[in-house]
Amino acid sequence: MEDYLKAALEIVKAQASVRTMTEEEITSMVQKLSAGIKSIAEGGTVETEVEYAVDPKKAIREKSILCCVCGKSFKILTKKHLSTHELTVDEYREKFGYKKKLPLVCKSLQRERRKKMKEMKLWTKRGKNKE
Ligand SMILES: [Zn+2]
């Protein structure tokens, strides 16, 4: 028997001795635990990154942004699309380790937006100076 399975069984045995568990509960707990322990043993984390369609670090490209959940390509990753994965923009950013204020748009659009913001700031400044 694999070590991770043994380890999982030990944990479940300990659990079963302190509370009543159904056979189903025991089975699913062993499954979950052994998978978790296995991925730790293999150098991964419990929440394996295998389920991600795209590496979040490589998702934002010059002309496109990839959805890390399904791997589809967009110019702008919209709230509407994320809602199909039952995620909000904030949850999405948190889940994939993005910064809180990161705009979910491709790099060229990010630059454009930044430029526009600058222009707007200059414009408001100019406006104020006129007063
Ligand atoms: Zn998606």
What fold name goes in the CATH topology slot of the largest domain?
Arc Repressor Mutant, subunit A
What does the average pLDDT come to?
A: 86
The percent range for helix content is 40-55%
Which ions and ligands are bound to the chains?
zinc ion
- The level 1 CATH classification of the largest domain is Mainly Alpha
| CATH H-tier superfamily of the largest domain | ROS/MUCR transcriptional regulator protein
> Which structural category fits the helices and strands?
mainly alpha
> What is the chain-wise order of helices and strands?
HHEEHHH
Structural write-up:
By secondary structure, the chain is mostly helical. It folds into 2 domains: 3-49, no CATH class; 52-130, Arc Repressor Mutant, subunit A, CATH 1.10.10. It contains 5 helices and 2 strands. The protein has helices at residues 3-18, 23-41, 79-84, 89-95, 107-130, and strands spanning 65-66, 73-74. A two-stranded antiparallel sheet has the order 1-2. A hairpin with a 6-residue loop joins strand 1 (65-66) and strand 2. The longest helix has 24 residues, at 107-130. It starts with a helix and ends with a helix. The relative contact order is 0.08. The protein binds zinc ion. Zinc ion binds next to loops.
